[in-house]
Amino acid sequence: MTRLDERLRSHYSQLSPQEQRIADFVLDHYDDLVSYNSAELARLAGVSKATVSRLFKRLGYEKYKDMREEQRSLRQSGMPVADSRDVVQGNTLLARHYKQEMANLTQWVNAIDAGQFGEVVQALGSSKRVFVVGMRNAFPVALHLRQQLLQVRSGVQVLPQPGQTLAEELVELTAEDMVVVLGFRRRPRIIRPLLQVLQTQQVPTLVICEPQARGIIELARWHLCAPLDSVSAFDSYASANSLINLLVNALLHEQLAHGRQRIHQIAKLYGQLDELEQR
To answer: How distant is the alpha carbon of residue 67 from its chain centre?
Structure first.
């Protein structure tokens, strides 16, 4: 699908002066476009509404609202698309942001399957090794999961290592291991074949993704979904990190004696190495 900005640039020389005024405005305010209806765009560009309609038909849209739906679908795919309200209404933005964050948290908490969650926690504790796979926007979340798991158990690695490939790591995986694949929207193409390989090798696998990722959910033994919806241009990973917090806390309580001992040993080493500020 050719994006609107690309269509405008390729047609620009054939546009009338009035249509070029619209094109100039759209290209200068591209991230805000989804928040304007056709009348608002006409007023802001200083042209008639009929000119706006004529331009978007020339660009291949049956109606102006078809273009807005296309822009919204780009946002749902993970592409950052801003709303002009985010800039000019600070207090309103804060309230909308809070409301959306709470809605995300409520959604994943209500959707969680207690039986499946319990199996995941048990597997995180009993597996010989745990490999956490996270790329692009999932990489920071993968690092956070590994760091939290290391407080409770050993044998946790993040894959792939910087600059490395996956094949060397996958070849020795067995059913005694566990893989956690974090794959959020706009994920690399390798996520699907990776899950297919893990499924073929019968490696217990958990996928953590957004609820709309039905195509990869079916490839894992377990799945936990974290909504990424945001009122701003960029996805929110607050619910994903909250889910990780719950997972590791549940694991700690499953292995409380061992977990406490490990945490105390780590704290002792912090002191011996003088790694952390005490204030």
So the answer is: 24
Helix, strand or coil, per DSSP, at residue 182: strand
Distance separating alpha carbons of residues 109 and 211, to the nearest angstrom: 12
**In this structure, are strands 178-182 and 156-159 parallel, antiparallel, or unpaired?**
unpaired
CA dist., res. 112 & res. 225, Å (int): 8
Residue type, 231: V
All domains in the chain, ordered by first residue = 4-79 (1.10.10.10), 98-273 (3.40.50.10490)
Amino acid making up residue 240:
A
Q: What is the pLDDT of residues 224-261, one digit of tens each?
A: 999 988 877 788 999 999 999 999 999 999 888 888 88
Condensed to tens digits (0 to 9), the pLDDT of residues 177-194 reads 999 999 998 888 899 999
CB 96 within 8 A of CB 150: no
Give yes or no for a cis peptide into 160 (omega within 30° of 0): yes
124 and 130 in contact (C-beta within 8 Å)? yes
